[in-house]
Amino acid sequence: MFSATKALALAACAQGALGALFITSPVASTTWAAGQQQTLSWQDDGQAPNLQAFGPALVTVAIGNAIQQTSLQTVVSSVDVSTTSSIVFTPDQTMGGNSNDYFIRIQSLGLKDATQPQYPALAFSAKFTLSGMTGQFNSTVQQQIDGTATAPIGGGAAAPTSSPAATSPSSTPAKSSTSGSPTASAGAQGASKDVKESGAFGLVASGAAALASTVFAAAILL
């Protein structure tokens, strides 16, 4: 079990959303085997702001609901999404249990949300499944998962659509690929273990507009 959590609440207003980055893998039907290399990929969704404006970004694996979320693993601390379109990384088996509630969160390190400029621009994948997991969710994370029934992420005006076909342009070849840091994949250092941040399930969202509140939490595994 997780022995400790550190939390920092971030208030946000769930109004509207702008496009930028559409995550093409994982999707809702995806099942990734933890402990094995997987490929996360994205493309421009054809809406403003474009990927060049989105720029360098923090990429994490997260879990939670529209009110509270927790990042469980840092995939990469900074990647320019306009020059890179995929990342190969290894999901950490110990960050939680087998579940179909995981999602990817991509946070711009420079671009701010158009309607709430005090918050960064964000993009989210659909929820997907991780199998072969050996960890357990602590009570705080489990409560966030249970809260998806009453606070689904990406609902209402916060998400432009729940249909990949409606928001995704024709797929394009990857511009380039980068491998996630082995340290980040194992969640063993710095932000990988101590910084937990997220938001999700809406296919594409912009900044804190997709969230009613975002919780950054650290979960330290005994």
From TrEMBL:
First and last residue of the signal peptide: 1-19
Coiled coil stretches, renumbered: none
Annotated Pfam families: Kre9_KNH
Swiss-Prot/TrEMBL keywords: Membrane, Signal, Transmembrane, Transmembrane helix
The protein's name: Yeast cell wall synthesis Kre9/Knh1-like N-terminal domain-containing protein
Top-level taxon of the source organism: Eukaryota
Residue ranges of the region described as Disordered: 148-191
Organism of provenance: Steccherinum ochraceum
NAD is among the record's keywords: no
Membrane-crossing residue ranges in chain numbering: 200-221
The keyword Membrane is annotated on this UniProt entry: yes
Gene Ontology biological process terms in this record: (1->6)-beta-D-glucan biosynthetic process; cell wall biogenesis
Source organism phylogeny: Eukaryota, Fungi, Dikarya, Basidiomycota, Agaricomycotina
Domain Yeast cell wall synthesis Kre9/Knh1-like N-terminal, chain residue ranges per copy: 25-119
